[in-house]
């Protein structure tokens, strides 16, 4: 029983860490998108939007948003 509780706590901690990393990635990618918009760089805008969509999907899966 103790092992089950320890495993559950570890899994919760890993998930919490992943959510934090995803939020940092999202902040960075939003800044990158903003810069691409200012520079009218269509290629980078598309890449940033794709990365943001991947991050959004993972956050939804983790029920973080």
Characterise the protein shown here.
- The protein is mainly alpha-helical and 65 residues long.
- It has one domain.
- Helices cover 88% and strands 0% of the residues.
- It is built from two helices and no strands.
- Helix 1 packs antiparallel against helix 2.
- The longest helix has 37 residues.
- The radius of gyration is 16 Å and the shape is rod-shaped.
Describe what is shown at a glance:
This protein has 65 residues and is mostly helical. It contains two helices and no strands. The relative contact order is 0.14.
List the SSEs and their pairings.
Blueprint: H1 2-38, H2 42-61
Helix pairs in contact: 1-2
In total, the number of strands is 0
Residue runs with pLDDT of under 50 for 5 or more positions:
none
Describe the largest sheet.
none
| Number of helices, counting only DSSP H or I runs of 4 residues or more | 2
Quaternary structure annotation: single chain
Given the helix and strand composition, which structural class is it? mainly alpha
The amount of beta strand, in percent, is under 5%
Order of SSEs: HH
Q: Give the domain tally.
A: 1
What is the radius of gyration?
A: 16 Å
| Percent helix range | over 70%
Distance between the termini: 32 Å
Q: What is the 3D form?
A: rod-shaped
The mean pLDDT is 91
